[in-house]
Design brief:
Blueprint (H helix, E strand, L loop, with lengths): L13 H5 L3 H40 L12 E2 L2 H14 L4 E2 L2 E4 L6 E4 L1 E3 L5 E5 L1 H7 L14 E5 L5 E7 L4 E2 L11 H21 L4
Parallel strand pairs: 6-8
Antiparallel strand pairs: 1-9, 2-5, 3-4, 5-6, 7-8
Keywords: Membrane, Transmembrane, Transmembrane helix
């Protein structure tokens, strides 16, 4: 291994350095001590700032993930919804009947029964977003998922009972995998359950 010799100032020799009086050497060393302490203090401050920066970067890197936006949802289209309603009525041991127009007892507005029940006056109305906008205050607002289904009376004597199933309550997304929040199957099952609950209620209450 090669070593590097100490550089000497021109005009001096090793003996010149060694021959300096001890008092001068001590004063020189004493003068260098504050500088050494300052250097160490500056190094500690720099180290402290560096550690703080590393902790800050670590905290930023370990923060909570960004909030994911909810998936864009679609409503169950009317054609498919009517198929699901007819099937649900059949599964309850009844026969679906063709739709017809009736007059609401409370407001006098005309509403269309999408699927009736053969031999009965009651029926199912699938209220699309367009229907809701057209009828406006003539029908009650859509129920929330945790609320009871909306029932209205129609006909001259009010004995025609209708359940209003709002399209906005039956939604799904087009995504797949872990990003999938609600499938068309889930929406159709919810619609089926609501229809069957109404049929059961109509039988229990002996609707005409």
């Amino acid at each position: 291994m090669q070593t590097q010799e100490a550089e000497q100032v021109p005009g001096t020799s090793e003996n010149d350095v060694v021959g300096v009086p001890s008092a001068c050497r001590e004063s020189s060393v004493a003068a260098q001590r504050p500088l050494a302490r300052v250097g160490r203090r500056a190094g500690l401050v720099a180290l402290g700032w560096g550690a703080m920066g590393a902790l800050l970067l670590g905290a930023l890197g370990c923060g909570p993930p960004p909030i994911r936006q909810p998936n864009a949802m679609r409503t169950l289209d009317e054609r498919r919804a009517l198929e699901v309603i007819q099937r649900a009525i059949t599964q309850e041991g009844a026969q679906p009947a063709p739709g017809r127009d009736v007059t609401l007892l409370s407001t006098g507005a005309t509403i269309h029964i999408d699927v009736g029940v053969r031999g009965r006056d009651y029926g199912v109305v699938y209220v699309t977003e367009e229907d809701a906008a057209k009828l406006g205050p003539a029908i009650p607002p859509a129920n929330r998922q945790d609320e009871k289904l909306r029932l209205v009376r129609a006909g001259e004597d009010g004995e025609v009972r209708l359940v209003l199933l709002y399209q906005t309550n039956y939604r799904y997304d087009d995504l797949v995998g872990e990003s999938h929040e609600q499938t068309t199957i889930t929406a159709e099952r919810q619609l089926t359950r609501d229809v069957q609950d109404f049929i059961t209620h109509a039988r229990t209450r002996k609707f005409r």
